[in-house]
Fold each of these.
Amino acid sequence: MLPWYVERLRGVRKFLLDHPEFSDRQRLRGAIAIPTADPEELRLATTALKEGRPLPPPPRATAPPAKHPISMLRFARHPGVIEFVERSAGGVCECCKNPAPFRREDGSPYLEVHHVNMLAAGGYDDIKNAVALCPNCHRAFHHASDATRVQMLRRLRSNVPRLG
Ligand SMILES: [Zn+2]
Ligand SMILES: [Zn+2]
């Protein structure tokens, strides 16, 4: 019986089809060792490795990694939204209220503009949907557990009245 994430690992699925002679366990161990340029696949393979007891020996690189072309779509962003949101924040993260961790070359405090309803989910590039965050809070909004993100969103909404 293979774990849930195998279905979502394209490299693993291909490996399983290519190597029917190995046991499920052997095939899984082999498959999660395949380098991938797909960030989601990489994350899932890392998740698979977390379940390994003991931790398998790390792979040793004998050449620079292969390169894969990617194609991606970028959203057109309005500079006026970024400037408004950054200036409203006044150099302080609108979520945790800590000061920006450093300044840019031009002296401006480094914060990142995040869309509460994410653009990829159909959100608007509008000041009512955008906040200035420190890099830690920004990463957390994209990668933390649901429970943490719900808490942070509550904090954000009480800190930033323009979100409505
Ligand atoms: Zn923060
Ligand atoms: Zn974001």
Amino acid sequence: MKPLPLHALVILVFAAMTLAQAETMPGWAQTPNPTGELSVNAGELRLDGKIGKLNLDQKSFVLNADSFTVPSGRTRPFDTPKPKTIVLNEATLLYVRGAATRKVTLTDLKAGDFAIVIGLDSGSGQPLTARALAVWDKAEGGVYSFRENSPETSVVAPPVLNPNSPPNTTVEPEPDAPDFPEGTFEDVDKKGNPVGWVLGDRQHARVVEEEGNHFLRLTNNDPTATFYLENRVGLNPAWKSVKVRVRMRAKNLKVGKQTWESARLGFIFEKGIGERIGDYPDTPKLTTDSDWVNREVVVPVPPGATLINLQPIMMLTTGTFDLDDIQVIGNPPLTTKTIRPGFPEGSFETLDDNGQPLGWELNSPQIKVVEEDGNHFLRLTNQNPQVSVFVDNYFKLDPTWKAITLRVRERAKNLKAGTQPWENARLGYTFMNATGQRVGDWPVTPDLRQDTKSWRIFTMRAEIPTGAVYIKLTPILHNTTGTLDIDDIKIEQAGT
Ligand SMILES: [Ca+2]
Ligand SMILES: [Ca+2]
């Protein structure tokens, strides 16, 4: 299950450049600006908004941003103001908007003042260090003014601090997850590079437009080559789990021999830049040609992780791989699906337009719905005893239930189980808490280690552990080869 370290396999790396390095590249020259004021350079971000809480000791304040602007000049509003911690340093140019020579100091600022901040884009959730900060408290007819009625305040006004804020407090983490606008690939600089991502080699990675929408396209025709891009997103310390969601499409895809040699949105967690932490998580991937599909995974955040390093990657895989609408969502609900009477998701009789069975998102060609004499069921196949074939599916438990009865019928052919007791074929299931951590003991599961003559019916009873919010169903060939068929899953409240 565990893929080899990405870095050990990387032959071509596009991503090692930092934005600072990229700035020195010819393609990242400063964007011309008619006024010369408020220009957004490559790698920078402009935020417009109102000043919130100030922290003079930290030389910082919270900007409640209404919009952001990228170097191409494109501006986008936020649906609701986004708090962003802004840090000032000696180099920060702080002045009255429209009058660059009228310098202001941090102590002149008050909560409620208007501000435009420009600085290097440090990524979502990270404080932004201001290169330029233009402020005003009044605008009339396009003329901006600041403290015009009381010019002396800029000299004598005491520092404005939130009275509830003790001195020397650290910069507070932002309460909400900022957007990840870089994930849409809509903001492209003059050279056609997507903002926030560095593409070193247009031959393998570029932004493509179709009907007004932009997306990332990776292409590769060398089966011995692996390459990826990187973009780091700050994690809110309150996040116990994240959902990584992406739209993907693939053409002429030929993946490598190992399961991780595929076209995927890889990601790892990091303590700091380049310091990986935790296991390699399950990641959204494509292994065969596909039209646009949504893929998502929900994974726990390893304790201590501060960054998620997103890596669109083609690993020993050839073809064309498109990615768009990458989202990182903190503490997501694992599902809104509930256990309905009769559990129609367990019969595999209803398929949607994409051929997906009702309530399931099958993510591998080794897991599909098969028909036999008019009945549909789920079939898993595996030829490689080194890997497991499985899919996770979550359902919300009725909070009044204390125990469940789980019924399922299973059938197996050419089964060769692994050497460990848990390396078998089964409908696995576990109980999860609100943030996606497993709770309680491993329940008894309907295990198969040998072929069955025909369908075999299992009935299991399990107590719902304290704190359980979801049940996770995991049809799996666990380091086991052969064919496993699953049908007629039923989950009901069990009597006590
Ligand atoms: Ca897009
Ligand atoms: Ca069925």
Amino acid sequence: MNHDGHLDLITASRDNQHSHIYYNDGQTNFTNKQAFGNPADTRSIAVIDLNKDGYPEIIKGNVVGGNVIYFGSKDRQYTRTIQFSSAKEETSSLAVADVDSDGDTDILVGNFNASNYIMLNKNAGQSFEQVKLSPQKYATYDIVVADLNKDSREDILVGNSDGLSFYYLNPFPKNKKAAENGEGR
Ligand SMILES: [Ca+2]
Ligand SMILES: [Ca+2]
Ligand SMILES: [Ca+2]
Ligand SMILES: [Ca+2]
């Protein structure tokens, strides 16, 4: 997170507490910690540079109050934010992958009692478009990506409580040219 070559830790804290970045001193001591954002009931964290400025964003999946993107910057204050879900949505899990193969990393959201969806990243984090995986609502505990059928497009798996779990083969065309040829659907 601070570009010193040592991987840092970020924790998701529940029960209206701050989540923290723990900075690795290079010998896996994590005594230097930094709270970021507002206290929340957070179940999941994802880290990725959504706008390609070299500073990773932190995405919080919250059970209460909506999910938030905290934009990275040189000073690591995380003051620029976007809330991208309704306050009532109970998010249990996040994943990141470029599912529509446009070069921008997208956000996958696993929910309890709300539809699971993809937030398509448009023009390097300028805006996002929600695409539901299914109109159904499940008790989803985990959402992950893997290329199940080896077509070089990430597929999506959801693990649900009290019901079936599902996988979704990638519905997006591989690239513009493939779409024009009607391939990859
Ligand atoms: Ca570091
Ligand atoms: Ca960034
Ligand atoms: Ca994308
Ligand atoms: Ca695939």
